């Protein structure tokens, strides 16, 4: 089979030949009068259509082409005795993927297929790169995201997803417009971010010499418009959050938010049912459809459940009794619930972590989760009968939070007080908190009428409507690592650059790590790092040393974990390690959260991992815990009994081995290794040393 370069060379030669004949392969003017869908209804009449060649078949002196435009597909029949002689001479120059303009009479073949019987045609855009189907197909999912333009050409079902997305947004706009809402635009660049708990992107305005933030939410500016006298406003816009990327999150996403003066959250629940159920019925022809193997029923009215009752049902804790951080931690310990509390500071964050780990995965919906605690809904009005709860709800579908809505807090004193409390949590180490927006407080002081507000992630809802497991599938150009950006801090080329040989590394481990479990963890990390090195074509022994020694100071720091990854400097320097080796080992302690529960040192606050080797180490050493835990629940407690598909299920079940941080394991995808492939690679690596591990 010819390579892509060989095929491209042939096409470039055809291009050059066309130009030498005085034919412009990229003309500005196109002879096109009808779309293909319109032309198909004009049997017996002359038509002029244009599109891309997506199929080509020859039979003697007849050539059959499948021509596709944005409206549909039609067969073009070129007969050498009917088509113009000048056009016939161009046949050797055309290829799949070229754009043609064809003129002729619509008719039907003997087989009954509606076709254009071509009298003339022109090449209007010569394709010099063959479509993937011609040489290897477009199978790699990241390549499909990166080259969405090709994905749309060769996979018609992908185009259908984005047509559905367009219909969803159009429907929602029309629905709101019909009810008297005004569509507005609010700033994307903001001097202070707010309206949600999220990390912002920061940029700098040169002329004003100030830092600005890409908005994380539209909320505060839309409510300023309610203060200004608009009763009903909405915005469909892009928001930006400087957070991780996974199947449910993309740093750039589309939100619909609306605010309705003189309404309350009960009104919004009824309105939401009417709006979204109508949308589902229009798209699907029914209120019922399947999402990832589960039937969803959007027939209104939808079930409702209070937040307190749901938490009680799924983890047995009454949040009215466990009413502060200390009591809730004690209840979690009593119930023996395993949670990853890295970076979790304050009652609200702790409660939210508990709910998301134990309750939310069970909520298929569609259903409303109401009366969420005041501790983590800083912009919602309190319930009059219970000020610890808010007049709020979420719509949950298939375990996903589709939208948030609530009675908007319009008491400026209470709003400022809540933001001050949030800032205090930030000072204690909570990574995401809301800051006081003095201008917004000033707006509230002028008076805002009772208002209910609503915000929905368009991407999330479209993913459910189109049965897609990942948001990337419903975002035309999802955020990806740039294709040709040089990876930072690649491993040095020579083994000696670490300053430590493998034999010496083993002796250092024996000296500083006596606990057999910790020693096994280091060995497991070494094996996965070696497997990754082979995958990338890197120095296997160097990567193995890094994995073996990554926790070298653990026994010295396990009772004072803020020294973990700090004491290692002294140990490794004494043994002759280079700064590169030390820095790489320290990096696995970055980004673990802050505050009293942060196991890493304060010196690492704000540091993030960079480059292939650092992401590899963090993902590898974290994955070991998940694999071993999966083996220990097997009847024979053997690694051989763990299958890649069962390991994937354990990975997606965040309650299982909850301390194995999934977001760190997912760093494998930042270095180009899909999660399924990484899980299989790590499992195979540990199965290779099962005798040493006793598993």
Question: Brief description of this entry?
Answer:
The protein is an alpha+beta fold and 695 residues long. The chain has 25 helices and 20 strands.
What does this entry look like structurally?
The chain is of the alpha+beta class and about 700 residues long. The chain folds into three domains: about 130 residues, Beta Barrel (OB fold (Dihydrolipoamide Acetyltransferase, E2P)), CATH 2.40.50.140; about 260 residues, 2-Layer Sandwich (BirA Bifunctional Protein, domain 2), CATH 3.30.930; about 200 residues, no CATH class. Helix content is about 40%, strand content about 20%. It has 25 helices and 20 strands. The strands form five sheets. An eight-stranded mixed sheet has the order 6-10-11-20-19-18-15-14, sandwiched between helices. A five-stranded mixed β-barrel has the order 1-2-3-5-4. Helix 16 packs antiparallel against helix 17, helix 16 packs across helix 24 and helix 21 crosses helix 24. The protein is globular. It starts with a helix and ends with a helix. About 5% of the residues have low confidence. It comes from Candidatus Gottesmanbacteria bacterium RIFOXYB1_FULL_47_11. Belongs to the class-II aminoacyl-tRNA synthetase family. Keywords: Aminoacyl-tRNA synthetase, ATP-binding, Cytoplasm, Ligase, Magnesium, Metal-binding, Nucleotide-binding, Protein biosynthesis. One of its GO terms (biological process) is lysyl-tRNA aminoacylation.
């Amino acid at each position: 089979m010819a390579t892509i370069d060989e095929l491209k060379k042939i096409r470039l030669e055809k291009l050059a030949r066309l130009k030498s004949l005085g034919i412009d392969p990229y003309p500005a003017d196109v002879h096109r009068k009808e779309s293909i869908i319109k032309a198909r209804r004009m049997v017996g009449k002359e038509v002029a259509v244009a599109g891309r060649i997506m199929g080509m078949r020859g039979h003697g002196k007849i050539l059959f082409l499948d021509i596709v435009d944005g409206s549909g597909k039609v067969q073009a029949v070129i007969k050498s005795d009917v088509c113009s002689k000048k056009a016939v001479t161009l046949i050797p120059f055309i290829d799949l993927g070229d754009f043609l303009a064809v003129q002729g009479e619509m008719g039907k073949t003997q087989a009954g297929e509606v076709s254009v019987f071509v009298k003339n045609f022109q090449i209007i855009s010569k394709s010099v790169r063959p479509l993937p189907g011609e040489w290897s197909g477009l199978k790699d999912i990241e390549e499909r995201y990166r080259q969405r333009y090709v994905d749309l050409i060769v996979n018609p079902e992908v185009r259908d997803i984005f047509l559905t997305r367009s219909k969803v947004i159009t429907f929602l706009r029309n629905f709101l417009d019909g009810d008297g809402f005004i569509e507005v635009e609010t700033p994307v660049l903001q001097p202070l971010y707010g309206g949600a708990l999220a990390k912002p992107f920061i940029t700098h305005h040169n002329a004003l010499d100030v830092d600005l933030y890409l908005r994380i939410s539209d909320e505060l500016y839309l409510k300023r418009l309610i203060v200004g006298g608009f009763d009903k406003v909405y915005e469909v816009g892009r928001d930006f959050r400087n957070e991780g990327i996974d199947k449910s999150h993309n740093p750039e996403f589309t939100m619909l938010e609306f605010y309705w003066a003189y309404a309350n959250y009960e009104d919004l629940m009824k309105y939401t049912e009417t709006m979204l159920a109508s949308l589902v019925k229009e798209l699907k022809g029914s209120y019922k459809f399947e999402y990832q193997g589960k039937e969803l029923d959007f027939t209104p009215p939808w079930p409702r459940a209070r937040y307190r009752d749901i938490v009680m049902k799924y983890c047995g804790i009454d949040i009215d009794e466990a009413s502060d951080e200390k009591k809730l931690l004690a209840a979690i310990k009593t119930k023996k619930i395993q949670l990853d509390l890295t970076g979790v500071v304050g009652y609200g964050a702790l409660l939210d972590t508990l709910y998301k780990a134990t309750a939310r995965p069970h909520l298929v919906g569609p259903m409303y989760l109401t009366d969420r605690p005041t501790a983590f809904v800083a912009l919602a009005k309190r319930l009059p009968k219970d000020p610890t709860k808010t007049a709020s709800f979420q719509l949950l579908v298939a375990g996903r939070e589709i939208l948030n809505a609530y009675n908007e807090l319009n008491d400026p004193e209470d709003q400022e007080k809540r933001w001050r409390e949030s800032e205090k949590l930030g000072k204690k180490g909570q990574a995401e908190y809301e800051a006081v927006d003095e201008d917004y407080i000033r707006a509230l002081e002028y008076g805002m009428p009772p208002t209910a507000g609503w915000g929905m992630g368009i991407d999330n809802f479209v993913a459910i409507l189109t049965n897609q497991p990942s948001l990337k599938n419903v975002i035309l150009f999802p955020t990806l690592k740039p294709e040709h950006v040089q990876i930072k801090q690649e491993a040095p080329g020579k083994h000696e650059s670490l300053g430590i040989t493998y034999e010496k590394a083993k002796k250092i481990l024996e000296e500083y790590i006596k606990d057999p479990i910790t020693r096994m963890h280091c060995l497991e990390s070494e094996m996965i790092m070696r497997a990754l090195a082979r995958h990338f074509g890197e120095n296997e022994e160097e990567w193995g040393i890094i994995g073996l020694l990554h926790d070298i100071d653990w026994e010295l720091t396990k009772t004072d974990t803020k020294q973990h990854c700090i004491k290692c400097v002294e140990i490794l320097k004494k043994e002759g390690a280079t700064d590169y080796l030390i820095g790489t080992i320290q990096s696995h302690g970055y980004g673990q959260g802050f505050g009293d529960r942060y196991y890493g040192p304060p010196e690492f606050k704000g540091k993030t991992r960079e480059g292939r080797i650092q992401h590899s180490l963090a993902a590898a050493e974290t994955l070991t815990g998940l694999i071993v835990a999966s083996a220990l629940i097997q009847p024979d407690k053997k690694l051989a009994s763990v299958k890649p598909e069962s390991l994937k299920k354990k990975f997606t079940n965040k309650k299982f081995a909850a301390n194995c941080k999934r977001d760190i394991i997912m760093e494998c995808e930042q270095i180009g290794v899909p999660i399924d492939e990484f899980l299989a690679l790590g499992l195979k690596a540990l199965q290779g040393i099962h005798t040493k591990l006793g598993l």
